[in-house]
């Protein structure tokens, strides 16, 4: 499809036409003035990660000794839990950060003042006072609503001096996931600067942004002189004309005024400089002009960088009349960007332009699809570097760089949380019938390229226009078909491992928050376990109930669905101090527990304040009488820190040393210390929170264990997707005695390839998205189950046939001893079974709804595994 100036019929991304320059513009009101300090960022994160950022929008320094922060806890109307007087002086255009004294180091590095006070929880209102005058507030005093739990919020609206009015974070703030700290310490304020009485009118200076900006070097132009958009964009990451008022002219390529981004994109005919972009975002939150894609417009406004996106804040706009469109119009077609790019500067040189990627790109990351409407795509499926290479190796470093350069994010063009309906890149509504999976392909994504929340994003050109074409960025090819059944792993006995993603019968804890959510969660888990049909299943992330209530509730549900008493549990009671634990269920018709279970919880090298205690139980296979000891584990996550040397280095995440020490302690315990019925055969299963080239796994291999997933599925196996990169955290490792008896091992890809939009949770979804639910096994968790096949005794062989009794007697004498036969092997030679779902072809988030400075969709990544 092609667009020309003043043609209003088409709205898909394609070719546009630019004409000549035109007339003076009508004015559009700018933002209202802010005359005192206001809260610019709020952090309520994990543990003690709490901080408040306060911005000075005025033109002079402010003495903070007259200001205080008051916390109104739990719906109270009097300050409690925190009434903190601020200290120091705050320069104009700068921020002041108040933080908890034992917050994470990233927060403390930005803190100007710390306090040991309890500060706030997510249901506490916060009021900023100047003396006794309220100058800003967060939340609603007198209301116990959950304003902001486990979230980072950045201000986009003006201060709120009414402490008891309704609070809607989606209107006033941009939302980011738990423990997002990258914007703390700076604020991109796009409103006018107040001039305090008795001071000279200051020159506006842009605040710092997360992306580096170039030092202005351009010669100022008169506001009425039309300049090329490339001159505004410049050749660097930031505009060389920040703070200047400019006039530019171009064709409207995308309209995002009513989708939360509060603006539109324009593009001119180019300046013949490939290092400068010819497109630009126009921030126009108050604009309601009858503007259409293809209109040629003249824009006047101030240049700024909003978190790395170059923009012009609209002060006046004129739609160029037909009579002034040049007869020799310049055609604009989508610029081609081929992945992988040579460097990220390729994207920057196209920021704000209509672009296309002339490739079929694999869907990589979709954790934020339901919440923010974003999908990351890349040349092939991407793998965690340490899933394929040794941490810190040149190969791992090169793969991390290649992954970064080989992806881009498709954004739905709506800067709102939990948009409804959810739209696919095709522009169609998402349903259970057209749902995509990781690894499916998006054909030649096309749209306008923007930057926000540290990611380059391709947006549809007209997300609010009401047409499929306007919402479309590319067609989808379904190439990763759902598996119809669990993978065949062979053997006479199957063992499974399943992370059940916070299955809690206690509501409002880590798992379900309502009875309906619990019923939905339970139904999916029950379907998955019954279909996998393993004789023994080790569970992770089940509630650590005092009397095994959650575990027994799950067993009852499994038996009800099976129509018989098919399942039983090893009742351990609570293990350790965490809210989640490890557990076993088994089928009494197939196996029987032998002796007591044992728990690894008393070795100082196995820190149960960080790991969940390892649980071991010996089972007898009833058909053969043979036994196997199974140990189910859940090691410390890669998320919160453990205060280790070089923590997080080489791409292994936090706490790698803690996990490595835990792995060694586990091997030592199983070799000589676990008080379980002795068995030659030992199988380690569970979520070890380590990829297969990381030291916790290599430590177990050095202790004589074989990585069964790698043996049977190869390096490119996966059970989990994090930041669009595949790998397996869920393991099965056999000791030397058991390894020859293993007939197969595989991940069942029912979860990691599915969008979280279809899971049980109803917490953030709209009604239409709540309805996207069935009781199938798909997205029953975020981890894929693991299945292992065992043949503990040799499979019986068929004896050679006896001679037919009616046959004539042999003419030569029978041998005096029977002819030797080849003995049956003690176990089948291990082979690599074909995976039940397509092998990965090898593996780049959207957006809260700000109402001021040109918002761009946030790029929260999927949460670090627990």
UniProtKB/TrEMBL annotation:
UniProt keyword annotation of Metal-binding present: no
Biased composition (Pro residues): 796-866
Signal peptide (from-to): 1-32
Keywords: Signal
InterPro entries: Endo/exonu/phosph_ase_sf (IPR036691), Endo/exonuclease/phosphatase (IPR005135), ExeM-like (IPR047971), Lamin_tail_dom (IPR001322)
Domain LTD: 26-142
Gene3D superfamilies for this protein: Endonuclease/exonuclease/phosphatase (3.60.10.10)
Name the record gives this protein: LTD domain-containing protein
Organism in which the protein naturally occurs: Parenemella sanctibonifatiensis
């Amino acid at each position: 499809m092609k667009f020309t100036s003043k043609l209003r019929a088409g709205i898909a991304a394609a070719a546009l036409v630019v004409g000549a320059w035109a007339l003076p513009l009508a004015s559009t009101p700018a933002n209202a003035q802010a005359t005192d300090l206001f809260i610019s960022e709020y952090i309520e994160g994990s543990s003690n990660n709490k901080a408040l950022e306060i911005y000075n929008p005025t033109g002079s320094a402010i003495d903070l000794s007259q200001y205080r922060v008051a916390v109104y806890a739990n719906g109270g109307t009097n300050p409690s839990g925190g009434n903190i007087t601020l200290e120091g002086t705050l320069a104009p255009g700068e921020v002041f950060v108040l933080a908890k004294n034992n917050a994470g180091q990233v927060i403390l590095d930005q803190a100007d003042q710390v306090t040991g006070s309890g500060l706030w929880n997510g249901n506490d209102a916060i009021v900023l006072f100047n003396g006794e005058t309220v100058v800003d507030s967060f939340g609603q005093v007198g209301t116990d609503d959950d304003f902001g739990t486990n979230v980072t919020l950045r201000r986009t609206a003006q201060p709120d001096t009414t402490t008891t009015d309704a609070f809607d974070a989606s209107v006033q703030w941009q939302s980011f996931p738990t423990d997002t700290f990258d914007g703390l310490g700076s604020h991109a304020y796009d409103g006018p600067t107040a001039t305090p009485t008795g001071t000279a009118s200051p020159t506006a200076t842009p605040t710092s942004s997360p992306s580096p900006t170039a030092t202005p070097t351009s010669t100022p132009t008169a506001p009425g002189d039309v300049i090329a958009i490339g001159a505004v964009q410049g050749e660097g990451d930031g505009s060389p004309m920040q703070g200047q008022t400019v006039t530019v002219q171009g064709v409207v390529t995308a309209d995002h005024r009513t989708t939360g981004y509060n603006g539109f994109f324009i593009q001119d005919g180019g300046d013949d400089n490939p290092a400068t972009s010819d497109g630009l975002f126009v921030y126009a939150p108050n604009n309601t002009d009858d503007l259409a894609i293809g209109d040629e417009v003249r824009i006047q406004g101030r240049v700024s960088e909003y978190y790395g996106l170059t923009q012009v804040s609209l002060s006046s706009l004129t739609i160029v009349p037909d009579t002034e469109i040049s007869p020799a119009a310049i055609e604009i077609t989508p610029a081609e960007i081929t992945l992988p790019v040579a460097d990220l500067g390729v994207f920057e040189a196209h920021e704000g332009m209509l672009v296309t990627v002339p490739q079929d790109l694999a869907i990589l990351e979709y954790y934020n699809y339901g919440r923010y409407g974003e999908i990351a795509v890349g040349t092939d499926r991407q793998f965690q570097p340490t899933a394929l290479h040794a941490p810190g190796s040149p190969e791992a470093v090169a793969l991390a760089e290649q992954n970064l350069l080989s992806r881009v994010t498709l954004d739905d063009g709506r800067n709102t949380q939990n948009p409804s309906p959810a739209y696919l890149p095709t522009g169609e509504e998402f349903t259970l019938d057209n749902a995509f999976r990781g690894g499916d392909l998006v054909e030649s994504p096309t749209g306008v390229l923007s930057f926000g929340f540290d990611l380059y994003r391709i947006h549809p050109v007209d997300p609010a226009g009401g047409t499929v074409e306007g919402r479309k960025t590319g067609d989808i090819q379904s190439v990763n078909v759902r598996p119809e059944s669990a993978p065949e792993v062979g053997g006479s006995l199957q063992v499974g491992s399943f992370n059940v993603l916070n299955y809690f019968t206690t509501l409002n804890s880590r798992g379900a928050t309502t009875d309906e959510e619990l019923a939905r969660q339970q139904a999916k888990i029950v379907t998955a376990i019954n279909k996998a049909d393993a004789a023994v299943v080790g569970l992770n992330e089940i509630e650590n109930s005092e009397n095994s209530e959650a575990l027994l509730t799950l067993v009852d549900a499994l038996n009800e669905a099976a129509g018989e008493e098919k399942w039983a549990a090893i009742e351990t009671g609570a293990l350790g101090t965490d809210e989640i634990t490890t557990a076993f269920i088994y089928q009494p018709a197939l196996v029987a527990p032998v002796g007591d279970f044992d728990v690894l919880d008393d070795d100082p090298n196995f820190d149960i304040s960080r790991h969940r205690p390892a649980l071991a139980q010996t089972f007898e296979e009833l058909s053969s009488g043979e036994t196997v000891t199974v140990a189910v584990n859940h090691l410390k996550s890669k998320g919160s820190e453990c205060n280790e040397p070089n923590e997080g280095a080489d791409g292994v995440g936090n706490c790698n040393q803690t996990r490595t020490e835990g792995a060694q302690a586990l091997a030592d315990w199983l070799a000589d210390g676990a008080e379980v019925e002795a068995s030659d055969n030992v199988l380690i299963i569970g979520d070890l929170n380590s990829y297969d080239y990381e030291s916790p796994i290599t430590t177990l291999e050095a202790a004589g264990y074989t990585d069964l997933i790698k043996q049977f599925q190869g390096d490119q196996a996966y059970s989990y997707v994090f930041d669009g990169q595949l790998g397996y955290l869920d393991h099965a490792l056999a000791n030397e005695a058991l390894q020859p008896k293993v007939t197969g091992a595989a991940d069942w890809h029912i979860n990691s390839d599915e969008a979280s939009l279809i899971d049980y949770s109803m917490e953030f979804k709209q009604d239409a998205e709540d309805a996207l639910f069935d009781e199938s096994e798909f997205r029953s968790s975020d981890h894929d189950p693991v299945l292992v096949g065992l043949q503990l005794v040799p499979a019986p062989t068929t004896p050679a046939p006896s001679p037919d009794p009616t046959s004539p007697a042999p003419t030569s004498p029978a041998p005096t001893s029977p002819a030797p036969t080849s003995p049956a092997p003690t176990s089948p030679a291990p082979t690599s079974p074909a995976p039940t779902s397509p092998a990965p072809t090898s593996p780049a988030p959207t957006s809260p709804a700000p109402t001021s400075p040109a918002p761009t969709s946030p790029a929260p990544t999927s949460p670090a595994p627990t």
